[in-house]
């Protein structure tokens, strides 16, 4: 025994090697294949029993991650030893071995460290003194076949000592694996010779190169995983702040200082005792999570997906608290551990930097411009802001904030040892919260025209941000258990501030031309930056975070130094920060009442500008792929319509004037003569001219012309300005047309994000749909467009049963099943003067719009427009309706019946039963 597993309790309950050795020795016969199979059966039973014992212990003690990981490695060790002995004594026994016929079995990688999750790969190596002999080849081959028969995933290598040295020198992955090599069984003297050779010929004098390569490898891995430790479905092993980051620290410590276990990092003066305790706690927790992941999934699974988060939170005994579910509390603890890993990495790199880095170049830190000797008492160490003494911050606590303000002002990094001191002394922030100088310095950082995102992130990493602004501290590492938000609340907020700074600096003009233009007109920059900081600050408290957040703003803004008017505006922005997106994405912007209701709340052009900028960065900071051309267009349309009302009041152009202006523009674009154009105008009802934008009017006119007297004509063309494909269906109108088209689009693999339904005066339906593919891109492939058209034709001609085809389609995005979303129907007869507006909230799924439209068809109402918004797993479908005579739906009983049908459809009740 190496002593590595000495502290593991009741090892024989996991696997009893003596008992199994006796069972293997009792096997009879001479047929090697039969013997191997019989031995494998015995070992398979032992493997299953051992795994069961370890899984039971993990359930009983769900937080003992390192113990579970060690138990798995111990079980593997014993199985390999039994298999090795059986192979060399019963199957390929050597009566008189030569010096070349020696063999050592080593564990490498994570298994070499003595840590394994239940379904981790088993990484092993076979070492021979020189070229492999026939005997060694037979032993290795037999053992590998047996391990595969056991159902294990094996990573293996076989090398002579010289090959080991040569390959380690040329490949950092092999070098890292062998760095953690551990003797398992076989020739001990050969192992000792290999270890000495590796140390002398590979390791000696190459520490600097190895550190540089491992840090470069870490950067690549972080970029691949999303380069933030706050992604809401993190990879426990590979993501930033995960196990691999801790392993990297250990590898570097082992390579440069020959430490054999993490605790020795303290002796090497790379971590303090307190920091090692944090290292150990984070490692233990992350291993527990990883072992639970494997155990639940029944396979090697390292991604902490939504469906598994809930189950692990239960296993690890996290309970619900007011405003926070058990899964949110579990994930907040997870992210706090990931943050700890990041903090330790910074400290660790600082020490390495002092010892190994060449002057002027440093490990893991980008080089920024140099700065002179001293700044306000702070010292400058190779271009970094450092502390002249260990108690520098304690002597004058306001320096805790000043340090970050100076770093921002002079474009400097903060020395990791200064960051370490800031983290240690973060509690000093409690004493300076009401200090006017500290608050002014904080506001300087928040509203910096340079790079507020980076400096605020440093403040957060050091724990200073959450101590100085305790309301922010409450949302640090807080995840939101849904598929819409990609980041924790603090990370989302800091990213939003960074995006605002980029828009203001003109770096995102192409993506956000309107926001970039209005930033120059905004009167109070600091109101906007403070509003972005506070917009989600009350999440996780229970209740409406917008209302609660406005209360926080009223309390905090005066402390930051904002006057009464600025405080009022910030509180208003926090209270209504969801208003603009909700109006743009869930309401019909061509209905003038929508604009008037919106303006009644906004009330001033300055507030409108501030609200647009806040809305844009809030959506953008949710995560990659959430912002798109369609959302940009809707927000721009709402902004321009509202700006006109706020500027001109009700003196703007009347409805008939706007229709006349649109018709004039359309005729000019088409180049038609008066008679030809008058015939088109005569066929189209007044609401059509109000509802459709000018570019769609042009496309529709051409569709009508091309269709001629055809009873069905379908046009589909990519609409780049809106990031979607415009599908126009021109057909003889009949009841149920809309739900059939919606179903056909779903069958073809499309998602409808907006729909407008019109009927010409001579009985033709003219329906416009904006369609995207399942990942939010336009349908632009010729094959896709062809399938789309034929699916609509088939549906309208009743050539195939739509319900059957939709049922046959597999349901994608099964992760949405992890969330409980109770269907909800909201009926509003005040949102429009002409229409009844019904909003349906439900779990997103293919053909949801088709089912809802079918329920409305059964309810005998006319759909005039449909607007679809998705927020991760949640869909919000809004319909503008009238009864069959064109009036609002007023009767209470009628509305109740419609609500019942829609709730059944939203819940997924099969359509024939939805009546």
Provide a short characterization of the protein structure.
With 915 residues, this protein is an alpha+beta fold. 55% of the residues lie in helices and 11% in strands.
What is the fold's blueprint, element by element?
Layout lengths: L10 H4 L2 H9 L6 H29 L4 H27 L12 E4 L1 H5 L8 E7 L5 H16 L4 E7 H10 L1 H8 L2 E5 L1 H16 L3 H19 L17 H15 L6 H4 L5 H25 L8 H10 L10 H31 L17 E2 L2 E4 L2 E3 L5 H4 L3 H11 L3 E2 L1 H9 L4 H4 L3 H11 L5 H10 L2 H5 L1 H4 L15 H16 L8 H7 L5 H10 L10 H16 L3 H12 L3 H8 L5 H11 L2 H16 L8 H20 L6 H16 L3 H10 L2 H6 L2 H14 L4 E8 L4 E9 L4 H11 L3 E9 L4 E9 L9 H15 L5 H7 L15 E5 L7 E8 L4 H11 L2 E11 L2 E10 L8 H15 L9
Parallel strand pairs: 2-3, 7-8
Antiparallel strand pairs: 1-2, 1-4, 5-6, 6-7, 9-10, 10-12, 11-12, 11-15, 13-14, 14-16, 15-16
Helix pairs in contact: 2-4, 3-4, 4-6, 4-13, 7-8, 7-9, 10-11, 13-14, 13-15, 14-15, 15-18, 17-20, 17-21, 21-24, 24-26, 24-31, 26-28, 26-31, 27-28, 29-32, 30-32, 31-32, 33-36, 37-38, 37-39, 37-40, 40-41
Structure characterization notes:
It is a single chain. By secondary structure, the chain is α+β, with helices and mostly antiparallel strands. 55% of the residues lie in helices and 11% in strands. The chain is built from 41 helices and 16 strands. Strands 9-10-12-11-15-16-14-13 form an 8-stranded antiparallel beta sheet, sandwiched between helices. It has a 4-stranded mixed beta sheet with strand order 3-2-1-4, sandwiched between helices. α10 packs antiparallel against α11. The longest helix is centred in the middle third of the chain and has 31 residues. About 1% of the residues have low confidence.
